[in-house]
Amino acid sequence: TTRLVPMTTASKRRRKVEAQLINSEGIARYEIILIDGDGATDKKTRKGSVGVLIIPQGRDQEWGFSTPSGQIETVNESGYDRILFVVLPRFQEYVNGHAVQRELSPALREVLRSTINVPFLTMSESDDIG
């Protein structure tokens, strides 16, 4: 069982919401950062309103994931209006990307108040997440 714990709230200037998914022991299993793009997504290549990007362990400090301008550029290049960046804390163990998706999907549907599956974006052909 996981529960969502908000860390920050959105504002028009920040376009950012942060939360953690906490496991039954009260430990952060995932950190989730919702970033809205700046509207620069090309309408012809738009894929949808929201996508999920699982950031492999150890890559969360890269420019495209850790800085406001990098995050917005990543969203704009994705073809989605907003992305849920999922950070995998280094002290946690994960089997593979598919297992993470199965674990996250119910919580993300609840957070997004959606009955449909949210698309997961991939960074590579590999299922390696750390």
Structural description of this entry:
The chain is built from three helices and six strands. With 130 residues, it is of the alpha/beta class. The longest helix has 15 residues, at 97-111. The radius of gyration is 14 Å and the shape is globular. The model has no long low-confidence stretch (mean pLDDT 81).
Summarize the structure.
The protein has helices at 63-66, 68-78, 97-111, and strands at residues 3-6, 16-22, 28-36, 48-55, 80-87, 120-121. The chain is an alpha/beta fold.
What's the story with the biggest beta sheet?
6 strands, mixed
E-strand count: 6
Shape call = globular
Radius of gyration: 14 Å
Distance between the termini: 23 Å
Topology, element by element:
Layout: E1 3-6, E2 16-22, E3 28-36, E4 48-55, H1 63-66, H2 68-78, E5 80-87, H3 97-111, E6 120-121
Parallel strand pairs: 4-5, 4-6
Antiparallel strand pairs: 1-2, 2-3, 3-5
Q: What keywords describe this structure?
A:
130 residues; alpha/beta; six-stranded mixed sheet; 3 helices
